[in-house]
Amino acid sequence: MKRKYNWLNHVFNFLAVILGVYLAFYMNERAKQNEDRKESMLLMNSLISDLSQDIEKYERYDIPVNIQYQEKVLAVLDLLLADSTEGIGGPLSDIIGIENYAPTTSTYSSMKSSGKLRLIDDLDLRKELTDFYEGFATESEMKGTYQVDYFTDELLLWLTMNVDLVDMQILNKGELVVLRNKLFIYESLISQKVESYKIVVDKSRELKQAIESTLKHQHGLK
């Protein structure tokens, strides 16, 4: 005797399995999206913290200190332009020391190296981050490096050969024109670095506001 085969029951069982698998994938995907969103918010808050600290450091210390340093270099130049070496030891000793600062890139570098930059869905914001950290921040750091290199390779070498560094007395006054020329270039490098610091502060503020705006939007979607 032939049994009746309940095709309808098997179809329902098959659909239930398919639906169960689909729901499992869906729930896993939603959980992954929520996890990614939370991590992206943590990373963006970390970026905001980096930018805030940089802005404060630049404005409270590094920009004013470098402007004062630039003025000391100009003071030496003024004496040389006046063909006077009297009292030049003090200003010369003041320029033996450099203050450099580079934007904090640890959070961004970590995001890029780990591939977590993709967690920021806003493509415009992602581009702003890349432009800032790989453009303005890198250029500013390089300007500081140029200043250090020039000081070490040119000015410090001249001072070592032509100045008694203990008493800060000029030993070879015939080389003062060389010193003057080197200081003209050096002062220009400092000026460029200070201007780059100011640009970084402005761009840091713009980037910070963009990140905060994205965070508010994400929070509103929760």
Overall mean pLDDT stands at: 87
Kindly state the number of beta strands: 2
Helix-residue proportion: over 70%
For the largest sheet, list the strands in their spatial order: 1-2
**Low-confidence sequence ranges:** none
Coarse morphology: rod-shaped
SSE topology string: HHHHEEH
State the end-to-end distance: 62 Å
Number of helices: 5
Radius of gyration: 31 Å
Classify the secondary structure makeup into a structural class: mainly alpha
Proportion of strand residues:
under 5%
Q: What characterizes the major β-sheet?
A: 2 strands, antiparallel
Would you give an account of this structure?
This protein starts with 6 loop residues before the first helix and ends with a helix. Strand 1 (163-164) and strand 2 (169-170) form a beta hairpin. Strands 1-2 form a two-stranded antiparallel sheet. It is mainly alpha-helical and 222 residues long. Helix 1 (7-81) runs antiparallel to helix 3, helix 1 (7-81) runs antiparallel to helix 5 (176-221) and helix 4 packs antiparallel against helix 5 (176-221). Helix content is 79%, strand content 2%.
Give a concise summary:
This protein has helices at residues 7-81, 89-94, 106-114, 123-162, 176-221, and strands at 163-164, 169-170. It is an all-alpha fold.
List the SSEs and their pairings:
Layout: H1 7-81, H2 89-94, H3 106-114, H4 123-162, E1 163-164, E2 169-170, H5 176-221
Antiparallel strand pairs: 1-2
